[in-house]
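WARN retry 2 of 3 for item q-0093 after timeout on previous attempt; input resubmitted unchanged.
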Amino acid sequence: MTQPYIGEDGAMTPALRMFAIVPSGNELAVLPKAIRADTAGSVTLQAAGDTVPVTINMVAGEILPIRARLVTAATATLHGLV
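OK item q-0093 returned
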């Protein structure tokens, strides 16, 4: 997992790029600054500093300021994770 947010593109600055997140059992290739959902539902993720995944309910358009290394599941109604 790379952490590209060093220097000018720090963890607290606006994102310079985005990528789609597909829930799986694999670590994300890039550690995101946050996760956003287009629709409401629940997502199971594991933050970079945690050892256990947690399930979080999200509303449409919500942004979670969580640096997740794993996104393992999402409900059928949750779409558009970036």
